[in-house]
Design goal:
By secondary structure, the protein is an alpha+beta fold. The chain contains two helices and eight strands, in the order H-E-E-E-E-E-E-E-E-H.
Amino acid sequence: MKRIVKSISLLLVLGFLVTLNSCKQETKDKVEAAGEAVVEETQAAAENAGEAVTEAAEDVKDALVAGTNYNATGKVPCQLSGAPTGNCDFGVVREGNGKGYVTITKPDGSKRTIFFEKGKATGYDSSQADNQEFKAARESDMYIIHIGEERYEIPDAVIMGG
């Protein structure tokens, strides 16, 4: 009889362990599935947040100066053909991410446009009759632009805003 009780007890313990192990595996599977769902939801949320930031950045437009097509106007130091350094009027069109152009009005009323890409001066509005060497150098937060004998000082804030 003792043997039968021991056998039954052993069978009950084994049955309990099998059931417990099955519950553990089921719990592990549920935890793993929940973890995967959290990762997927987090990735989706991050993608949605990234898209929202991009859309918001596209919606933010640099204001225009009243009555112009420029985002800002003002004066920059300029030197033309050996004349003393003076100030020339400018207007800037900002296209975002450091891209845009600065149009400078010279004292004689003629205009010079300097182009920027990714915050760097890249060239000017040249024609065959006006094909002069273009050089751009940075000094602190300012671009020093040379076009032939002309010299312009354009602060970063002009093209980047701020």
